[in-house]
Amino acid sequence: MSELVKPSSVEVFEMIDAALKYNQSATEGKEGIYQFNLQGDDGGIYQMIIDEAGSRIAQGEKYESQVTLTIDSDDFREMVAGTLNPTAAFMSGKLKINGNMGLALKLQTVLNSFSF
């Protein structure tokens, strides 16, 4: 039996970027710079920028973030897929949040608006 191939972190953020452009209303009232520090074999730094120019993803640390989320890349994929609850991930220590906690809470509604 073959195992399903998981998308890479880059592919996940490409899907998020496409979803942001498709559903701009999901980010209304959630302006800010969200940084994701993904750890593990498929780690990296990504930013979700939501501003007057629209919503987009950038690879690397392009701007000063207002909230930074640090999580293992596998756990992040589970969170985006909806199989890992962000609150449970935070409470268990799998997800660490630094910066504007209110902005971090708004992120959950943005991610929940996508279906991957």
From TrEMBL:
Gene3D superfamilies: SCP2 sterol-binding domain. It comes from the Bacteria. SUPFAM superfamilies: SCP-like (SSF55718). Residues 23-111 form the SCP2 domain. It holds the Pfam family SCP2. InterPro entries: SCP2_sterol-bd_dom, SCP2_sterol-bd_dom_sf. This is Sterol carrier protein. It comes from Virgibacillus litoralis.
